[in-house]
Amino acid sequence: MTSSLSAMPAIETHRSLLAVLRGERRDPPPVWLMRQAGRYLPEYRALRATKGGFLELCYDPQAAAEVTLQPIRRFGFDGAILFSDILVIPHALGQDLAFEAGEGPRLSPPLLDGLLDGLAAAPERLSPVYETVRRVAAALPAETTFLGFAGSPWTVATYMVAGQGSKDHAAARRLAYKDRDAFAALIERIVAATIDYLLGQIDAGVHAVQLFDSWAGSLAPAEFERWVIEPNAAITAAIHARRPGIPVIGFPKGAGAKLLDYARGTGVDAIGLDETIDPVWAAEWLPGDMPLQGNLDPLALVEGGEPLRNAIGRILAALAGRPHVMNLGHGIIPETPVAHVEEALDLIRGARFARD
């Protein structure tokens, strides 16, 4: 863990999630869920129906703040995660961005050559996100940790190169082999934009940030070192240097045993574990003072009942000896019953959360 966290004011320890990210153990562990603000909530669906498209919702500060706060009001999670999307960075770098119903995001033009030369950067597109952060920060309960986030450069680049999502990320992987200089230049631009973006979120009021690398698992080991570890290390170092005391969580989904190199090489303060990682292995092999986050299978949450109880029990037992933030191994699935989220909180906290 980085020593920069020693700069965190002592008064912040009333936020249990933030305390754990600083290296403290809490029993029960604090909990939040990736994509906890979203389609499984009826109040989200009702608001979304009045706001049109997804991107319009992300760029509407009043609505995005309301969406961020909805799961805090309902469940009292220990952390609130900013409602936004990782693709606002390519949008700010000048690509056009749209979300097609049933088809996912589309970025144009695709950067098949990796070059940004023909694009006009539009950093002002991020201003509504900072306003959302300010609104949420003003409304959150004092005990709730506010998490900002960005996509990690590799994952963002896969969308920018292909112009859309893909199963194997072949377009970005081939470009990285074919024209290393062009791909490196693209990654560097994403790194610089991401640093500025996260600093903006921090200055607007978030207490910690998470780097989502959803497609880290598609890379060979040497490519993982170059396109995942190195860029994330640059971002983390910049955050630590320019905003001391702000924890950085790294979430390289699919990294598997490469998590060891990720933990050593990126300088992140905490690591999110996806559902494929054995928490017993993680507890044994990852640095002993490093907070771990996760890693409940989202489908166990959908199922509820005995599978959910068993899964939560295994995770809590495996990670009981170290700082731990309870979370999912990836984002909550839209068909997740609200009652199963309540059930999970009962199991984690040991008593039913009493709503106002």
Architecture overview:
It is a single chain. The protein contains 15 helices and nine strands. Helix 11 links the parallel strand 6 and strand 7 (270-272). The strands form two sheets. Strands 1-4-5-6-7-8-9 form a seven-stranded parallel β-sheet. It has a two-stranded antiparallel ribbon with strand order 2-3. Residues 1-11 and 351-356 have low confidence and may be disordered. With 356 residues, the chain is of the alpha/beta class. The longest helix has 25 residues, at 180-204. It has a single domain (30-113, 121-349), classed as TIM Barrel.
SSE diagram, text form:
Layout: H1 16-21, H2 42-51, H3 54-58, H4 61-75, E1 79-81, H5 88-92, E2 96-100, E3 104-108, H6 127-139, E4 145-151, H7 153-162, H8 170-178, H9 180-204, E5 208-213, H10 221-242, E6 248-252, H11 259-266, E7 270-272, H12 279-285, E8 292-293, H13 298-303, H14 305-318, E9 324-325, H15 338-349
Parallel strand pairs: 1-4, 4-5, 5-6, 6-7, 7-8, 8-9
Antiparallel strand pairs: 2-3
Keywords:
single chain, globular, 356 residues, 9 strands, disordered C terminus, TIM Barrel, alpha/beta, two-stranded antiparallel ribbon, 7-stranded parallel β-sheet
Q: How would you summarize this macromolecular structure in one to three sentences?
A:
The protein has 356 residues and is of the alpha/beta class. The protein has 15 helices and nine strands.
Share of β-strand residues: 5-15%
Global geometry? globular
Indicate the radius of gyration in whole angstroms: 19 Å
Q: Helix and strand succession?
A: HHHHEHEEHEHHHEHEHEHEHHEH
Helix content: 40-55%
Q: Specify the CATH architecture.
A: Alpha-Beta Barrel
Mean pLDDT: 93
Strand segment count: 9
The number of helical segments is 15
Q: What summary fits the major beta sheet? A: 7 strands, parallel
- Number of domain units: 1
- CATH topology label: TIM Barrel
Strand order within the widest sheet?
1-4-5-6-7-8-9
| Unreliable residue runs | 1-11, 351-356
Class based on secondary structure composition and strand pairing: alpha/beta
